[in-house]
Amino acid sequence: MPLFGGAPRAPVPDRVMDCPRDGAQLVKLTRGEVTLDRCPTCSGLWFDATELKRVAHDKELESLASRVRAYAEPSPFACPRCGGACVASHVQEVEVDTCTLCHGIWLDAGELDEAKRVVDTARLLDGSSVGLRSFLRRV
Predict the structure, then answer these.
(1) Are the beta carbons of 18 and 27 closer than 8 angstroms?
(2) Residue 64 within any structural domain of the chain
(3) Mean local confidence (pLDDT), 102-114
(4) Is residue 84 classed exposed, middle or buried when 0-12, 13-18 and 19+ CB atoms within 10 A define those classes?
(5) Which residue range forms the structural domain that includes residue 112?
(6) pTM score of the predicted model
(7) What pLDDT shows up at residue 109?
């Protein structure tokens, strides 16, 4: 049975969550129309299913972050949202922890920016970036 089989388990939205890294109570952080959960001590972020795409405005980044490879490694912690098992996956060299049940994603401090940078760089290198094509036409 695949780890990500079926629809995501519905998260319990008002559940108080603790940071999977240091146990501190996560606090709500609103960005536009999205409310995330952030650790006040380590600055890690919890993204419920589809929130990463909405905050980063990048469907590909969310897809890469939630993809489980054939040899996914178990994460050292359980999902702070639903208690399900998390696995470690990668966006290039950036490790992200993804819940196998509710499909939420945990990113340590700075990992969102790093993952976005890595994905954008890959787009530039393979020529799929609209910005690169525009730039090359002007040169």
Answers:
(1) no
(2) yes
(3) 89
(4) middle
(5) 27-138
(6) 0.73
(7) 94
